[in-house]
């Protein structure tokens, strides 16, 4: 893979169109394929508008040059000369598998096949191919042109040489690549779970209302958005489903247990901003609820959620899901956390974080609050974190 590689993108939805834009702006010829002609047309129109806007802002020399690198295709045969294919279609394993098998029959033997899946196993997608060693995960974040992070996920079968090659290519595309094991949620969607689930738990128990929790995490925690505002923004059809998928994929580990509060929102069709109502109402003229700006309560909330987040990051390090550096990069570049969770652990003090977790565990006697053995070893002085 190099700058002359023709990049094929399967699926011209939110992610596919964004990834295609990134590749074309990095100088590649791009074939964007979708089975839905209307979706392809929409992507063409919006790509043209976005590129024009970038040119007007002086961020792109010539939008027409970039547009000229695109082929919009309704037939998979258009991928014949591609050296890299990135799939971004519907999140259904059986459909992805059949598309990978179909595409493999069209491309050359050395074409690399990547999936942008958020939650499916790359190994199981690779297993659909005759040559699974050419398959890996390239997980971009939404919106792909703006979010720097790309998680690179080798499957069990992936040729080892592909990983550094993919890393170099992503850097050439201006991205920040991290390497992660093929486990549920990869880095970001695994480590971030408590940001949502513990916030909901605190609300369900009546410790604080959602506006107060959002205030604590933004004002005291430094996060860009509070958990309830963020879940409404992402949409409960996406955020709840990721939580449920991570939970079931982890063989029902209680640490990832979804909540009924969020499931009911999904069932009610209260999907968040996009449907006008989620945890909050977005109807015209609706006042946003006021938080209780109590610093003692706010710090309690912040420390409880933060302790669980840090525990996830430390445990991911313990299980070699990614390096310490990549774990911190992933959370700052993929979901804009104010700092990496391992760095945060060091600054706050691993002993304080462990004391918080053990306090919760002693109160609740729930496995949800069990501390990672690595955190204990760090506090005992047996290991360094960074
Ligand atoms: P989307 O629904 O916006 O777009 C999917 C597109 O794929 C549609 O245009 C559809 O017509 C097309 N498509 C469906 N089946 C096809 C097939 N067999 N062949 C060719 N085209 C087909 O979906 P979105 O949000 O872009 O997600 C795509 C993938 O990216 C999913 O795997 C998702 O999990 C992943 N992803 C999504 C993120 C997000 O925030 N939306 C973030 C990171 C990954």
Descriptive account of the structure:
α8 packs antiparallel against α13 (295-318). The longest helix has 24 residues, at 295-318. The chain has an 8-stranded mixed sheet, with helices on both faces. The chain is 49% helix and 9% strand. It has helices spanning 14-25, 37-56, 63-67, 93-104, 122-126, 162-172, 188-191, 193-204, 210-220, 227-234, 236-249, 260-268, 295-318, 324-334, 341-348, 350-364, 373-379, and strands at 7-10, 30-33, 70-73, 84-87, 112-115, 135-140, 149-154, 176-179. The protein is built from 17 helices and 8 strands. β1, α1 (14-25) and β2 (30-33) form a beta-alpha-beta unit. The structure holds 1,4-dihydronicotinamide adenine dinucleotide (NAI).
Q: How can the largest sheet be summarized? A: 8 strands, mixed
**Extended strand count:** 8
**Ligand identities:** 1,4-dihydronicotinamide adenine dinucleotide
Mean pLDDT: 96
What is the total number of structural domains? 2
The number of helical elements comes to 17
What is the CATH T-level topology of the largest domain?
A: N-(1-d-carboxylethyl)-l-norvaline Dehydrogenase, domain 2
Strand content: 5-15%
Q: Report Rg.
A: 22 Å
Assembly state: single chain
Structure in a nutshell:
The protein has 386 residues and is α/β, with parallel strands linked by helices.
Highlighted features:
8 strands; 386 residues; N-(1-d-carboxylethyl)-l-norvaline Dehydrogenase, domain 2; binds 1,4-dihydronicotinamide adenine dinucleotide; Rossmann fold; 17 helices; 49% helix; alpha/beta; eight-stranded mixed β-sheet; 2 domains; 9% strand
């Amino acid at each position: 893979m190099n700058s002359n590689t023709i990049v094929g993108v399967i699926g011209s939805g939110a992610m596919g169109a964004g990834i295609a834009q990134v590749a074309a702006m990095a100088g590649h010829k791009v074939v964007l394929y979708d089975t839905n002609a209307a979706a392809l047309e929409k992507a063409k129109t919006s790509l043209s508008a976005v590129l024009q806007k970038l040119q007007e802002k002086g961020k792109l020399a010539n939008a027409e040059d970039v547009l000229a690198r695109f082929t919009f295709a309704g037939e998979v045969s258009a991928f014949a000369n591609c050296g890299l294919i990135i799939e971004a279609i519907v999140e259904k394993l059986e459909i992805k598998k059949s598309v990978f098998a179909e595409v493999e029959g069209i491309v050359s033997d050395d074409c690399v096949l990547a999936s942008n899946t958020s939650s499916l196993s790359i190994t199981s997608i690779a297993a659909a191919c005759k040559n699974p060693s050419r398959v890996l995960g390239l997980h971009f974040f939404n919106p792909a042109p703006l979010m720097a992070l790309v998680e690179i996920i080798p499957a069990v079968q992936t040729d080892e040489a592909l990983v550094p090659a993919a890393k170099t290519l992503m850097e050439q595309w201006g991205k920040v690549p991290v390497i992660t094991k093929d486990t549920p949620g990869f880095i970001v969607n695994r480590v971030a779970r408590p940001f949502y689930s513990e916030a909901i738990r605190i609300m369900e128990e009546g410790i604080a209302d959602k506006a107060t929790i959002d205030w604590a995490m933004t004002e005291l925690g430094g996060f860009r958005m509070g958990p309830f505002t963020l879940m409404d923004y992402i949409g409960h059809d996406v955020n709840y489903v990721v939580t449920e998928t991570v939970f079931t994929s982890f063989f029902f580990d209680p640490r990832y247990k979804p909540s009924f509060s969020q499931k009911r929102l999904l069932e009610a069709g209260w999907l968040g901003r996009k449907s006008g109502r989620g945890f909050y109402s977005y109807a015209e003229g609706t006042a946003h609820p006021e938080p209780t700006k109590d610093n003692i309560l706010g710090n309690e909330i912040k420390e409880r959620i933060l302790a669980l987040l840090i525990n996830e990051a430390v445990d991911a390090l313990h299980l070699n899901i990614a390096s310490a550096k990549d774990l911190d990069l992933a959370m700052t570049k993929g979901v804009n956390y104010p700092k990496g969770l391992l760095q945060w652990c060091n600054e706050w003090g691993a002993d304080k974080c462990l004391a918080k977790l053990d306090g919760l565990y002693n109160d609740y006697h729930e496995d949800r609050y069990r501390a990672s053995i690595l955190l204990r070893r760090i506090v005992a002085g047996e290991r360094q974190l960074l």
